[in-house]
Amino acid sequence: MTFAEAEQYFIDALGEIYLQREAKSLFFVWINTTLGKNKTDLVLQKDEVFNIPENDLFFVVSRLKQKEPIQYILGKTTFADLPFFVKSGALIPRPVTEELVNHILEEYTGTKNLQVLDIGTGSGCIAIALAKKLDITVFGLDKNPKALAIAEENAVLNRVKINFFRHDIFDSKFPLTEKFNIIVSNPPYVLDSEKMQMDANVVDYEPQEALFVADNDPLLFYRQIVKLSDNLLLPDGKLFFEINEKQGDAIRNLLAENNFNDIILWQDIHGKDRFIKACYGK
What we know:
This protein is of the alpha/beta class.
């Protein structure tokens, strides 16, 4: 089978589920991950026969028909130009979160000896990307042992040392005595009522507890992290959040009421309020 024939098979087989452009995108992710081919390669080599068994192609497409995310099927993805293993125990790293990482990198590149805490580390993507590119000591916290196991694998894969540990932020005693220059978190922020608007490949496969929060308490995790920051952040340390686009003002007010200043809310590439940072100071 040639590359062009394989791409057409993706389009035809997935036509009832995905738009043509989506099927083409899935094909590219598959072929790029398995053979390292880029889009130019696929144009120039479209009539070449590739060396992946056709059964592998059929197997991938059969799982895509069930709306399973391509990243879980392949078992890997990229984030911040780094490789990551992905499994069903942790959220799939998303491009929007790369924007948060890039903002931190822009602000702190060249700064030495930073202490960073990533709350709700999941696959470890934020912690690992920062550790790979900054002179820092990083701690990554999650309550899910499956997520932590994946994060440990990703740290080894990317040859960085991260101090991962298991903890539920709502437990009374926090296990660390360290103080931090940066606390970063992408906590659950999708409202339960928004679940119906989301694709099945997210709702049916990714861990619900890492995504959703009750409508009657949308700031549940933010409020607890802000509370913990009172003991964990150094003076003039900074807190970085990824947020629900509808909660920007509420989180800004929460921070202002809890000894944070220089509060900045900024938008993602789609023009939605998505990130907020604030400086801690009593």
